[in-house]
Design a protein that fits this description.
It is built from 16 helices and 14 strands. The chain is α/β, with parallel strands linked by helices. It folds into two domains: 145 residues, Enolase-like, N-terminal domain (Enolase-like, domain 1), CATH 3.30.390; 268 residues, Enolase-like C-terminal domain (TIM Barrel), CATH 3.20.20.
Length: 431
């Protein structure tokens, strides 16, 4: 491949409000900043957004600062990345991203006044990374997503699903009507946020005790509703659950108590995945638990994926829209080689990034309990301006709408994947 010269870079941002406070990791978001990277080569221009989620990527930075300040800190890291690559040449986005991450992590620590998780840096780079891949495609005459897949990832991304089950997100605030609405629409796999911090507690032990009680009650509430539904999209015909603890559990005894409660209520066999029960630094072996444990924030590099698999994690949440496409290609290769499972999870991203995620998800193996592929998309549940954001898609990119809980995929979906690289509405932010 030819070396591509980066002539000029620019950055803009938009603050997108959410319909209601969005709760996870014991905290809440009310808006998500969308930074937009514009990168010009000698021949082409690419513009791509990034959805910042400081709470997801580094809850410590989020907790230390007002939400807007933490978002501004992440945007400073994005700006630093663009300044670093301006004037440089690259043959592969993967090599360029790998080269700048260490320096960006040091810079982010200086901006935030503390060491930051690598996911914080990767989250800041999403718009930069997608712009680089778009330029790479244009400069090399690549006209479909398939043309971007490195040789090392081709075996792991050899599927062509004819449907993707949508995974909606049930945050703390979603009530019974919202749960029923999801299931009435044909949803087969529910992502359920657990690990809620209950107000008014004074000690860590009390926090953990109240959290466990809330989680059990929440699972029971959802299970009682979901038990009344069937689905053609799972092998058992039952609605499945994807529990996301966001690192809130303090050890195996409390996690086992949650699973014992799930067993007693008849929900254990419905738990397809249990994500990030422990903090990233917790290296407890989880391979003997009766459910598949999934890594997310703790797996932000190829080395992390390999380490988590050795700890008994049997699945990893891929997030091209949060950890970069460049890093995700390496992750999916490692997971596939180890015989593990993966899925494309959301970051409450905008419609354009959701389409990138769908293209990646359509090419990886289905989860063990599913008859179809799956992809998490919850932006439609949470963005105030979701319909307006859909108008920013490149013309002809949007695939078929959700039907009975799945996105139907046809030849046009795969053929039109090259439209990801074309001009989108975010270009209008730059004068």
């Amino acid at each position: 491949m030819n070396k591509i010269h980066i002539k000029k870079c620019d950055l803009e941002f938009v603050r997108e409000p959410l319909k209601a406070p969005f709760g996870f990791k014991g905290r809440y978001l009310t808006e998500l900043w969308q930074t937009v990277a514009k990168i010009e080569s000698d021949n082409f221009t690419a513009v791509s957004p990034c959805v910042e989620s400081v709470l997801w990527s580094d809850a410590g930075v989020f907790g230390d600062n007002p939400p807007a300040v933490s978002s501004a800190m992440m945007m400073m890291v994005t700006n630093r990345a663009l300044k670093m690559i301006e004037g440089e040449c690259f043959a592969s986005p993967i090599e360029l991203i790998d080269a700048i991450v260490p320096e960006l992590k040091r810079y982010a620590a200086s901006v935030c006044g503390r060491e930051v998780a690598e996911t914080f840096v990767l989250n800041s780079l999403v718009g930069v990374d997608f712009s680089l891949w778009s330029l790479y495609a244009k400069e090399n005459g690549i006209t479909s997503f398939d043309g971007l897949i490195p040789g090392t990832a081709k075996a792991a991304m050899s599927c062509r699903h004819d449907a993707l089950a949508q995974i909606p997100l049930l945050s703390y605030a979603v009530e019974e009507n919202g749960i029923r609405s999801c299931l009435d629409s044909g949803i087969a796999l529910l992502k359920i946020k657990i690990g809620k911090a209950v107000p008014g507690v004074s000690t860590q032990e009390e926090d953990m005790r109240e959290m466990l009680a809330w989680d059990i009650a929440r699972l029971k509430q959802i299970h009682e509703i979901a038990s009344r539904y069937n689905t053609p999209h799972t092998k058992s015909g039952k609605i499945l659950y994807y529990l996301d603890a966001n690192g809130r559990y303090d050890g195996m005894p409390r996690l086992e108590a949650l699973l014992d409660a799930a067993d007693k209520m008849g929900a254990l066999d419905r738990i397809a995945l249990l994500e990030e029960p422990f903090a990233p630094e917790n290296e407890t072996f989880v391979g003997n638990l009766p459910v598949c444990i999934n890594a997310d924030e703790s797996a932000h590099s190829l080395a992390d994926v390999k380490a988590r698999l050795q700890m008994g994690y049997k699945a990893v949440a891929l997030k091209p829209i949060a950890k970069t496409l460049s890093v995700s290609f390496g992750m999916v290769s490692a997971i596939h080689a180890a015989g593990g499972q993966c899925l494309c999870a959301d970051l409450t991203v905008n419609p354009l990034l959701a389409e990138w995620n769908k293209q990646f998800a359509s090419r990886i193996d289905a989860l063990a309990g599913m008859r179809v592929g799956c992809v998490e998309i919850n932006g439609d549940q949470n963005y105030t301006n979701w319909n307006e954001l859909k108008t920013l898609l490149p013309e002809g990119l949007a695939g078929k709408p959700l039907q009975n809980g799945v996105f139907p995929l046809d030849d046009a979906f795969y053929a039109n994947s090259g439209k990801l690289f074309e001009q989108n509405g975010y270009a209008g932010l730059f004068k």
